[in-house]
Amino acid sequence: MKNITVRSTDDADWPALKATRLAALLDAPTAFGASHASAAAFSDTDWQQRAISTPQRTFFLAFDGEQPIGLAAQVVAADGVCHLIAMWVHPEYRGLDVARKLVGAVKQCAVDNGHPRLVLDVAPENTRAAAFYQKQGFVFLPEWEALESHPHIQVQKMEWRAAALR
Fold first, then answer.
1. Using 50, 70 and 90 to split pLDDT, how confident is the model at 163?
2. HEC states along 51-117?
3. Spatial CB neighbours of 14, under 8 Å, sequence gap ≥ 6
4. Alpha-carbon torsion angle 94, 2, 71, 27, nearest 10
5. Is 30 strand, coil or helix?
6. Residues of 119-156 as b/e, b for ≥16 C-beta within 10 angstroms?
7. Which pLDDT score is estimated for 86?
8. Does the predicted model carry a pTM greater than 0.90?
């Protein structure tokens, strides 16, 4: 394994962002609010726009050398709440430090953009993910909703507050 790096995407990263997001949706189809079919339907222009980082939406890619191996994003919803979304690590890299680095980058981005609170959704039966998020300082909230891409799956909100680390 080479040196793992994590960085925000820019317009030149759109092919890597597209490939990684589609791989994530194929690998874990019930873990995300989007479906593989909906993401595969995006045009190259759509992917180029998604890859451009803004305070409202920033995607992060993890790389092993030049190979993208993980993904996470921060998105600010219409209500002003900052969300951690699209979290995924290639199966061969799970259990290493990749996920922690991705979450750390999203946390830093949120704080840098004035959001000391970060929210995510997780299916409680996804025990590995839930335990990982708890290790990263996230706590469960008594809030549930249907997963947009699979409405029969209920996900629970978790939150992280920057002040908790100080």
1. confident
2. HCCCCCEEEEEEEECCEEEEEEEEEECCCCCEEEEEEEECHHHCCCCHHHHHHHHHHHHHHHCCCCE
3. 44, 47, 48, 50, 51
4. -50
5. coil
6. bbbbbeebeebbebbeebbbeeeeeeeebebbeebebb
7. 95
8. yes
Residue 157 in tokens? 């909100």
Q: Strands 150-161 and 117-122: what pairing?
A: antiparallel
The residue assigned the tokens 């820019």 is: 10
- Domains in the chain, start-ordered, CATH in brackets? 4-165 (3.40.630.30)
Contacts of 91 (CB under 8 A, 6+ apart): 27
Phi, psi of 21, deg, nearest 5: -65, -45
Residue 2 has pLDDT above 90, yes or no: no
Q: How far is CA 73 from the centre of its chain?
A: 4
106 neighbors 137 (Cβ within 8 angstroms): no
Average pLDDT, the chain: 93
